[in-house]
Automatic annotation (TrEMBL):
Pfam families: ILV_EDD_C, ILVD_EDD_N. It comes from the Bacteria. This is Dihydroxy-acid dehydratase. Keywords: Lyase. It comes from Rosistilla carotiformis. InterPro entries: Dehydratase_YjhG/YagF (IPR017798), Dihydro-acid_dehy_C (IPR042096), DiOHA_6PGluconate_deHydtase_CS (IPR020558), ILV_EDD_C (IPR056740), ILV_EDD_N (IPR000581), IlvD/EDD_N (IPR037237).
Length: 672
């Protein structure tokens, strides 16, 4: 049993204690001499600078900055740091997750570089939540909306330092890093560099941070003991900092940021806290100063070509489907054309996965091995060899991808790290980043497919590469027909999967989870369901169809982003228990369908199924979750005007203003 919490004695909460002056009051100091020296002002500065700029110098001196070093160029280190660490790294106050626990060290390393060069570094923070921590809780209602909110706050912080010459964005995880990309691309008139926060190490013995999130489901089904659950839950994070060890949304976002040219070469997925990780921060600071000196901004770097390269790398890695929300949003922030479903489809037709990293197989290596095997430059080198890469795209290193890749194969960095992987883990780097021709022979297929059908007329998405091969036909097609098990809350669905329900989910069922899209729950992530299905012996024989989204570590026959969502009138909201649902996913041809083909009593022709769905009323319990915060309801309404999930859940300000104006005028005509 855990030790009892010792509440302080009630006397400590008494009014007398609060109002007793004691020795503390007697020690109050009422004035001080202020910093010594004087500001390095000139006649021109005093006549032309704003009062705000001048007062900023006073504030700098007040914080202890040497007035003699006051006039150097200002650079903002903006990070998602969370928690409070003691000088030796032990926790004083915990962060929400390992991904923001150590990033303050990256900020410090970069700031020292700016200072040594004569610059004036600033640091600001906008911390981020943990999707793993909020799985299955009401905290998930704020997860995706947080991205937009944080990007707004970050941009406001950037603009609120008027004399900044550039931005160094330090972030690691699922929403903080996409928010940082939105922020810097939304201020692309400045030079900016992203510093990915890296990854945590896998435990020497034990489960990774993805599998360990299933201990509740496995224990409930008798798959593990109470002692094993406690042991695995304790030791899953091999080191205290960095994103999870799998290529989920956090790691995929790091990879995508590098592929876009937003980071220095070979920056994504470095092991947190290690010298090579800190060196990336120092290199990034030097690159930012070089961009500033050359007059280059992010508008020169983040282009249609860099967005395309990011999509290629996403496909090659088998990356998180959440990036289908984030990459279009980054493009929108940068003022570029946002990729469409057809664009994604075409890229995935061109590029089959050739990276073997958790949660994908066949082996499923931890992300640190992907870094050691060569990371993003190695992947992009293969893509260039295939003739697919747009190599003239620039990077924040001030050179193009072609220039980087010309030097990469013979580089000392590549040679040393790949050798380290062989020596330390006895792993061939070419078994992690597999040469594409070899990957094809091993049966690796393309990453995503976009099924349509009478239950998802606007489309849906499935990470087709992650379907268990044992339930896929020899022709590469996954086919499943089964009875619908309809749920309107994730809590009820996971209870049925764990067996804590009058009608437990069984092998052969098709779980249909509705009302969990943006309008219903902020488009919650349903990893506790997908992970439970992965690690239960019969889970591969269950399909999941939902208007919610999935974690990047999800695997299996999980179809999400169903559109229209149930609360927007989508037919998925009219499915009833026992309906026969047919799912077909061609992992090679990259097309699929999700259709109602019958009721519990009889089969239906396509026309009969369409007519039945049109005539039915929505599920009687379908409603906005009563615990959905007003903040997230507002986000859902605004992003829907901006095009919804297939446009990246963005705020299209012009459309929002036009919609509000039209609504106001309509109300005025009605006299309300």
């Amino acid at each position: 049993m855990p030790p009892a919490f010792n509440y302080p004695d009630d006397s400590l909460f008494s009014l007398d204690q609060h109002l007793d002056g004691g020795d503390v009051a007697a020690s109050v100091v009422t004035s001080a001499s202020g910093p010594s020296g004087q500001l390095p002002l000139t006649d021109e500065i005093l006549r032309s600078w704003s009062s705000g700029d001048l007062f900023g110098l006073t504030q700098n001196a007040g914080m202890g900055w040497d007035p003699a070093r006051m006039m150097g160029p200002q650079y903002l280190c903006l990070s998602t740091q969370g928690g409070v660490r003691d000088h030796d790294g032990t926790p004083i106050a915990l962060g929400y997750h390992t991904g923001h626990w150590e990033v303050g060290l990256l900020v410090q390393a970069a700031a020292e570089q700016f200072s040594e060069a004569g610059g004036v570094p600033f640091a600001a923070f906008c911390s981020d939540p943990c999707d793993g921590r909020s799985q299955g809780t009401n905290g998930m209602f704020d997860s995706l909306p947080y991205r937009n909110d944080a990007a707004i706050v970050m941009r406001r912080l950037i603009r609120s330092l008027p004399r900044r010459r550039g931005v160094l964005g330090v972030a690691t995880c699922d929403k903080g890093l996409p928010a940082m990309m939105l922020a810097v691309c939304g201020t692309n008139h400045l030079p900016s560099v992203i510093v990915p926060g890296g990854v945590t190490l896998p435990p020497t013995v034990g489960e990774d941070a993805g599998k360990v999130q299933t201990i509740g489901a496995r224990y409930s089904q008798g798959e593990i003991s109470l002692e094993q659950a406690g042991l695995e839950g304790c030791r899953a994070c091999g080191s205290p900092g960095g994103g999870c060890q799998f290529l989920g949304t956090a790691a995929t976002s790091q990879v995508v940021a590098e592929a876009m040219g937003l980071t220095v070469p070979h920056a994504a997925l470095a092991p947190s806290g290690q010298p090579i990780w800190l060196d990336i921060a120092r290199q990034s600071a030097r690159s930012l100063m070089a961009l500033d000196a050359r007059g280059l901004t992010l508008a020169d770097i983040v282009t249609d070509d860099s967005i395309y390269n990011a999509m290629l790398v996403h496909a090659a890695c088998g990356g998180s489907t959440n990036l289908l929300l984030h990459i279009p949003a980054v493009a929108h922030a940068a003022g570029l054309r946002s990729p469409t479903v057809d664009d994604w489809h075409q890229v995935n037709k061109l590029v089959a996965r050739f990276v073997d990293v958790l949660p994908n197989g066949p082996v499923g290596h931890p992300t640190v091995r992907l870094f050691l095997a060569g990371g993003v430059p190695e992947i992009m080198w293969h893509l260039r060899e295939l003739g697919l890469l747009r190599g003239d795209a620039m990077t924040v290193a001030g050179v193009s991808w072609n220039e980087i890749l010309d030097a990469w194969p013979q580089s000392a960095r590549r040679s040393a790290l790949r050798q380290r992987l062989i020596e330390s883990d006895r792993v061939d780097p070419d078994d992690v980043i597999i040469p594409p021709a070899t990957a094809k022979k091993r049966g690796l297929t393309s990453t995503v497919c976009f099924p349509q059908g009478n239950l998802c007329p606007e489309g849906s998405v499935i990470k087709s590469t992650s379907i268990d091969p044992s339930v896929v036909g020899d022709d590469g097609v996954y086919r499943k027909t089964g009875p619908a098990r309809v749920f309107v809350s994730e809590r009820d669905a996971i209870a049925a999967i764990k067996g804590n329900h009058p009608q437990p989910v069984q092998a052969g069922d098709v779980v249909v989870l509705v009302g969990r899209g943006p309008l219903g729950s902020g488009m919650e992530e349903t990893y506790q369901i997908t992970s439970a299905l992965k690690f239960l012996p019969w889970g591969k024989h269950v399909a999941l169809v939902t208007d919610a989204r999935f974690s990047g570590v999800s695997t299996g026959a999980c179809i999400g982003h169903v559109g229209p969502e149930a609360l927007a009138g989508g037919p998925i909201g009219r499915v009833q228990d026992g309906d026969q649902i047919e799912v077909v996913v061609d992992r090679i041809g990259l097309h699929g369908s999700v259709n109602l083909i019958g009721t519990a009593d009889k089969s239906l022709t396509p026309a009969e199924a369409e007519a039945l769905l049109a005539s039915r009323s929505p599920h009687p319990q379908l409603a906005v979750d009563p615990k959905m915060p007003d903040d997230s309801r507002l986000w859902a309404a605004l992003q829907q005007v901006g095009g919804g999930t297939w446009s990246g859940c963005v705020y299209d300000v012009d459309k929002i203003i036009a919609t509000l104006d039209a609504g106001r005028q309509a109300l005025e005509k009605e006299g309300t």
